[in-house]
Specification:
By secondary structure, the protein is α/β, with parallel strands linked by helices. The chain has 14 helices and 15 strands. It starts with 5 loop residues before the first helix and ends in a 6-residue tail after the last helix. The structure holds ligand BES and zinc ion (ZN).
Length: 466
């Protein structure tokens, strides 16, 4: 979004620091359509230093930060130290989850097959070294397998109808030593078995083309022997952490009971430095914490970075589950900063779980209107840490740019793709929105509770697990 000259002009006009309940400045005639920037907005935006955000993104995105790994631990320590250096009491909230380390080696060979096979593993595929006769088992449904003896065989199964896990378990039940599942659409098959199960047998995935070629050879009447080797995969309990810095109301006797949560996720997917997803939101959470440290507020503000978002919003679910009923009812807003600085993404938008406006979107549209004369669009969507808050009835919104950059979840999601201009804009809008609600003599909309909605699995996960 383009900023009108107004903001710059006001920056100098505001130096006298007017203060008052509804302290606004007269609108210059030529920018009449833009809401005047309030003195209060200026108190926030003059403190924002985008270089801090950029430097912290640079630092955090040196490596991927996969939940439960040493690099996540390092990021957690760093975030805690940053919060503490601004003077915050900071809590590290650990939680466990059942994790999976993918195999370090996997091999699939089929005797008498000349073509090249490039198998991939499923998340939760188990280790093993098995050899057996290749048997075609269709879609791997219980009906299809009835009467089939797969003892010691490698079952070749097509994707579709059942989950990958159900196919593997059905074949294992019939005695299969291993399973190959091939795609029913073009492209690689990168799937998950959903969770660990002791009854799994080693399972690998092939493309449609590879699977159909094997099937054609098998159907020609040849008896084929297949071997599957999977090594180094590891399933087990792991620990991830949330980091929470709390700003108590400035004057306890004059405070509201309200809590605002400003959050982001510090973990990334494997193989991606996660500069935009979501070192950008993490670094912005840190900077907003620094900015708000000495601003007088009558509302408690919690600055949180969540772990294991990429594994299913685990950290934010853990955080919301850890709240008492009283804390939930006092939490009036969750600002979720996830992917807020890509040079190659579109305009700032907000996602709410039910697609409706709420306190967070109203405050942010108002601040954006005052600062830039434009209001970000509100769309319906899940896929990030605002979901557990919305499900608990807390007004929540995701701040993101749309359309998404092509580097999302790739090794190219790096510092070179980050725009300081985008970071500055989001930090100003969100910072001004928070202050409108949290400052003493606020004029913002009254908090409204949103009805509880439950996210359907499609709204949380993008990927198809079948
Ligand atoms: N930041 C993304 C979510 C996102 C990406 C929202 C692009 C809108 C546009 C988040 O970190 C993510 O990748 N979420 C997962 C789902 C999660 C429940 C594992 C996703 O969208 O696949
Ligand atoms: Zn993200």
């Amino acid at each position: 979004m383009k900023k009108p000259i107004l903001t710059v002009a006001l920056a100098s006009t505001l130096a006298f620091g007017a203060f008052g309940a509804q302290a606004t400045l007269a609108k210059p005639a030529e920018v009449n359509q833009v809401q005047p920037v309030k003195v209060f907005d200026h108190k926030v935006i003059e403190k924002i230093n985008v270089e801090n955000i950029y430097k912290n993104i640079d630092y955090l995105s040196q490596t991927p930060r996969v939940a439960g790994t040493e690099s996540e631990d390092n990021a957690v320590q760093y975030i805690k130290e940053q919060f503490e250096s601004y003077g915050y009491e900071t809590e590290i909230q650990p939680f466990t989850f059942y994790g999976y380390t993918p195999p370090s080696n996997m091999e699939l060979t089929v005797d008498d097959y000349d073509g090249e096979l490039q198998p991939s593993s499923f998340t939760y595929s188990v280790n093993g070294d098995v050899t057996g006769e290749l048997a075609y088992a269709g879609l791997g449904t219980a009906e299809e397998l009835e009467g089939m003896d797969l003892t010691g065989k490698i079952a070749l199964i097509k994707r579709g109808e059942l989950s990958f896990a159900e196919k593997v378990l059905n074949a294992a039940e019939k005695g299969a030593a291993g399973v190959i599942i091939f795609n029913n659409a073009d492209g690689a098959l990168n799937g998950t078995l959903g969770s660990h199960n002791d009854d799994y047998v080693p399972a690998l995935a092939l493309s449609k083309e590879e699977g159909e070629a094997l099937l054609a050879l098998h159907n020609s009447g040849e008896t084929l022997t297949a071997s599957i080797k999977i090594e180094g995969a590891e399933a087990g309990e792991k620990v991830s952490h949330n980091v929470i810095a709390t700003k108590q109301p400035t004057n306890k006797t004059k405070s509201t009971d309200e809590i605002i949560v400003v959050g982001s996720h510090h973990d990334s997917v494997a193989g991606a430095p996660g500069a935009n997803d979501d070192a950008s939101g993490t670094a912005m959470t840190l900077e907003l914490a620094r900015v708000f440290k000495d601003l007088p507020t009558d509302t408690e503000i919690r600055f949180a970075t969540f772990g294991a978002e990429e594994l299913g919003l685990l950290g934010s679910y853990h955080y919301v589950d850890s709240l008492s009923e009283d804390e939930i009812s006092r939490t009036v807003a969750n600002f979720n900063l996830d992917m807020v600085g890509s040079r190659d993404a579109g305009d700032l938008v907000m996602w709410t779980l039910d697609g409706q406006e709420n306190l967070v979107t109203e405050l942010s549209q108002a601040s954006s209107e005052r600062l830039n004369g434009e209001q970000p669009q509100v769309y319906q969507g899940g896929r990030s840490d605002h979901v557990p808050f919305a499900e608990a009835g807390i007004p929540a919104a995701l701040f993101i740019h749309s359309p998404t950059e092509p580097w999302y979840h790739s090794p190219d999601d790096s510092i070179g793709k980050i725009s300081k201009e985008k970071l500055q804009e989001v930090a100003e809008i969100v910072g001004a929105a928070i202050y409108e609600q949290a400052r003493f003599d606020r004029m913002g909309p009254k908090p409204k509770k949103t009805p509880k909605v439950k996210a359907s699995p499609e709204m949380i996960h993008e990927q198809d697990v079948k």
